[in-house]
Amino acid sequence: KWITLSTANGSSGTQDVTVTVSENTTVSERTATIVVSNATYGTSKKIDVTQRSGEPFVRLDKSEETVTSDGGEVEVFVNSNIDYEIIISESWASTQVSSGSKGEARYTINVENSPEIEPRSVVVTFSNSKHNVTETLTITQQKLVPSIEVDTESINFPVDKSNQDIRIESTISWLAECDAD
Length: 181
Description:
Helix content is 0%, strand content 45%.
């Protein structure tokens, strides 16, 4: 399937036949044989075809990504002609698998919520040590901006027993205390 001939038959005389090979994206040399024959006269000639191996590769669709301090998911698409390991440099990021196979694949890197007030980074490495191939994805997580917001600054109650809700939006944990007896 990786070789095509411009024509598969001919008549007496001289004729050029173009042999076309597709790109060898594997890391193995490949061979085939072309046989030119005539069954009626019992004659044939063989032509050995050899194609060098392709260079081993792992390609990512991106090399950098940024996420907010809330964390989230980062998708990365990988194309490879070799098997590879997936190594994540920090425990606050993870994926469901630790290796991949040649071909195309999509991986989701889960990044946890950051409690840090400085940006942080994690490196996701896709590598094959046998072929000395390494590609990396660096995910930078933005710093946590500590904030506490309330939807009102005052609440007024009637004389009867009653209640009201206040909405608190926060990027950090909080504690509510009241100074009333």
